[in-house]
Structure prediction request, 679 residues.
Amino acid sequence: MPTGLNAVLEPKTIVLVGDSELKKENEVYSRQFNSLLSNLSDFKGKMQIIDLSGKTPESESRLEKIPGGRDLAIVVLPKGLLTKNLRKIVTKTRGLLLISDEIDPKQADELSKLNKRGKLALLGSASFGVANPEIGMAAVISDKLGKGGIGIVCRERSVSNEVVSRASELGSDVSKMVCTGIGLGADVSDIVKHLVEDKKTSVICICVDEISESRKLIETIKNFSTAKPILILKGGKVGKIFRSAVTQARGILVDDIEEILLGAAAISKQPLLRGKRIAVLTNFDGQGRLALNYLEANGFVPAAPSGETSKKISKKIPAAKIGEYIDMGRHANSDDYKFAIEQIISNENVDGLIVVCVAGLDYLEPDEIRKVMEKSKNKEKPVVGVSLLEKLKGVDVAEMEIPTYRDTKSAAVALRISLARHEIKSAFEKASPE
Amino acid sequence: MGEWKKLAVKDEISQILESVKSSGRRELSEAEAKKVLQLWEIPVNRTELAKDMNDAIRLAREVRYPIVLKISSRDILHKSDAKGVKVGIGSELELRQAYDEIMKNVAAFNPKARIDGITVQEHLPAGREAIIGGLQDKSFGPTVMFGLGGVWVEIIKDTSFRLAPLTVDEAKEMIREIKGFPILAGTRGEPPADIDALAAIIEKVGKLISEFPQISELDINPIFVFNSGKGATAVDARILLGDGA
Prediction:
């Protein structure tokens, strides 16, 4: 039986409470309810639906039908209906996820007290929801997310919405996504603590627009950033003090949603970057040149493989041009990539490698791309793939567990964050050698 | 500092802060601020308040020439703007001249300024100048700031911050973080500055601002940082109490 926050984030039994047929200004609640109904269809535990209008198939219309001892009630109702029914719901559940935005202040106070006393794990109100792909739980009002090691916590709904959309678009692999809403119950720090202990989560992303308890959050990051990498995106004015506080807490401050997701992918799927020398392997020279721009902008230097490595690559791939980047020419196939990747990554002058695979011009078939990306797996140094094809023609890169980026700029940003984490880890190890 | 001594020191500092508050002031005089720092084991140059010329002459003999004279007035925030500072005074004759000049300058600058006296201060050999600040940030609470001092500091704004209290290692990190760090590390054959001493002082400022939330702002500007092994000393200090202190 899940207890505490687990009742909300890892429930075995869910009851979804809403009304599918509200009209006028309350219609939005029905849309949210229907969206949740659809998204929760893959939930692996037991689910019960209370549709107060009674229109949803296999649903009940009366709250009295909820058996006691449910792990989680997800409630999406307008204020009037919520006020009337909340007490009935709360008595039958260990956890409460309030998607509803408005709530009676007295009830809010009661719920908050219950949460503090440990009698009810509460998330919300005004939460965008919770996603736990491992158990097929997509209690969010938008896209579903892929399964993986990135734990995400957001405070505000619209930010959560954007994070989920971008994560879905970028193929980010998520352990849990949690929106605290206005924080009547669990706040961002509480969720961070949960994610630190969560075995599925290898990297934690925090997206906050404003922070009511800044010091608490920074202290939480400080306490746990040595155990797991913590990336933080703050909306509004960041300011020198916040920036310094994140540095002091050994967190990694990022500038936007894409950057936090790219960085998290790099950290969760690859060895950390340990130096600034990055090699670029491509099959089109324009991409090689562009990559150099982005490497420089992110503080890297192009890595030149030593003479011996260059000779070996030239011998195997006579068309290859080896300079500040390695252009194998447009006819390079997956065998060529395989050979060049192995040579470059084992070179001592190289700390990391960006593999550009221009496939949009159909020089490389999808199966070849898959082989190239698979060769990008490396245990010692990060190799990030960039496949320049709008859609990978059926190649599910996410399944391959290789961070693949849509352009060299994104790859360079991800590597910068990977290096930042390495530096934090090294500084900590240096400070505590035992 | 042992626990008993610490308690006694805290008590003494609280009394200084309380007496400032009960006299209707929010800002400590320089001598009071330095007394607080000294009690907290932060090195300061010796600073004594003289009520008149004769007092200044007597104190100068105790402090020993060369000395520095500075106006002490709650109505004058920036003493240099009022031409209320004279440095490198080497004799009683120079002291008499400097004393009169300061009084004239201050009267011209602000005829209504309430004058507490003139401080007689130990004149230190020049070190590399830095500033250390402390504040109660409204979001983060006690916070410390570090930067290089000198004339360009306000323009360059080359500063670093940390939440307090902080460790000596964190203080060293914040020293290394500023762009001007090479000036302290030693450039063009100049020996490195005493970064260990500087970091220890930053750590103490962090504890001070954390343990006395009634201090809303604290500035040590400048602090002279001497060559490695020679320490660092606060040469000017300002402490402001919060509204609710």
